[in-house]
Amino acid sequence: MSATRALLAEHSRRGAGIRRLLRLILVGFFVAVLITEPPVEHRIVCWVIVGCYLVWTLAVGALTRGGYERAERLSWLALFVDVATLAALTLITDSSASVSWTPYLLINGFFLIPVMAAAQLNPVVCVVVIAPAVLVYLVSGLLIRHVSEEPISYVLLRTAMLASVGLGAILLSRLQRSRVETIAGLLSDRNALLEEMVTLQQREQRDLAENLHDGALQYVLGARQELDDAVDGDPEAAERIDQALGEATRLLRSTMSQLHPAVLDTAGLLPALRDTIETFRARGRFRIELDSADWDDGLRTDADELLLTTTRELLTNVVKHAGARTVRIGLSRTGDTARLVIADDGRGMAGVDLDARLGEGHLGLASRRIRIEAAGGSIDFGPADPHGTVVEVRLPLSARPVRAVAPAAS
């Protein structure tokens, strides 16, 4: 679903809730009028209409939960039913106008129609519904004015006021839709820029890994090969040089793996995750438990790299800030959704505001959340029991063919 459509769907759902509330208020208004000023004739018919309208209101409330398209289709019909119900009650009680205030009270309910119409984001619906509502209000006012001998100018003024409210509702609906579309456009631009940034970052990391492999690492490996022939002096010095070069080789390999893990391409997410866990187990000096029973070793998806980099970012935060002794990682797949859970027994993250951290330039967790949400997923932080932090990541998956990548020379 596009950003614009997603926002329209969310605001449509909220608008449907407002309309449900207003219809229940309208039902309460009908009941109050029929009790305080019952019509002389057709009383039972009025109660039946009110009862049917209540059932209709509850049914519409249930049906509009079924999706954006259904809510849009029902909004037209529901608003016309609102107008028809008000018109029917007003005209049926018209015969009681000489002895009861019932029709004069019921006709005021028409002022809720523009508010209901404005609670959705389609100005065309507002026009199509409000125009007949104003016409019905005018006709109803003209039909009952002869009983109270109300001047026609009064009826016209009231109708003009309702039309003004309707115009305001139409303009408000148009403004609200414009705002939603503007926000959706900004969200789409943000996601596009984020994708560009991620692509650039991945390309730079891959290039840096290749440069390390083809440059510094080759020199170190060559030095080790030449060591046996070049050193004929102190054997202890040769051993120290060999140890130093060996450590440099290990560090370079580790850096290359962090920049672009070849194992992610050649073997899949789970082996790459195990390598990452070994690295952080040594760095953080804490115990890491991995539960991946529901994840196939050879599974490849488009979310692999994001899941791996998210795990690294979260483990980095555990190393720097948590002071944890045990970290538990769970990786599972349910249908087309991946679920990554990382829980630690450290200090916890009470009071951390990711938006504020992003605004201050701390791009770690906040930017990770943006990437996950841009990919259609979610990330949630919560307290662990009895202490610590639990982070749950959900990402949509799309399986892809295995990509055979030649292993780097060692």
UniProtKB/TrEMBL annotation:
The chain crosses the membrane at residues 21-38, 44-64, 76-93, 99-117, 124-146, 152-172. It is found in: Cell membrane. Residues 307-399 form the Histidine kinase domain. InterPro entries: HATPase_C_sf, HATPase_dom, His_kinase_dom, Sensor_HK_TwoCompSys. Pfam families: HATPase_c. Keywords: Cell membrane, Kinase, Membrane, Transferase, Transmembrane, Transmembrane helix, Two-component regulatory system. It is a multi-pass membrane protein. GO terms for molecular function: kinase activity. It comes from the Bacteria. This is Sensor histidine kinase.
